[in-house]
Design goal:
Blueprint lengths: L33 H17 L2 E6 L6 H9 L3 E6 L6
Parallel strand pairs: 1-2
Length: 88
């Protein structure tokens, strides 16, 4: 996530990545993962509050729904990209 006001030349040298588990609609959250998922969503919301633009690399459309809803509710700009898994 990148705070736009920190560097208007858009040199992303200070960008930091976060690996978070985001639930998808229709997919149950295993009981052993509930606490981690809640923590990840809270972390995501905190990061959204602290930044102007959020770049999301997700592996499916379904996984982008919650970040999109949270971002829209906070008036944030989100850029989503699909991560493709190639099997040879």
């Amino acid at each position: 996530m990148y705070p736009l006001a920190d560097d208007l030349n858009l040199g992303f040298q200070n960008a930091v990545g976060h690996e978070l588990s985001i639930p998808m609609p229709g997919h149950p959250i295993p009981p052993a993962s509930v606490d981690k998922t809640k923590k990840d969503i809270a972390t995501f919301e905190k990061l959204m509050d602290e930044h102007d633009v959020v770049f999301q690399l997700m592996d499916s459309r379904e996984s982008r729904w919650l970040p999109t809803v949270i971002g829209a509710s906070k008036g944030k700009v989100g850029v989503a990209a699909h991560v493709c898994h190639l099997v040879s």
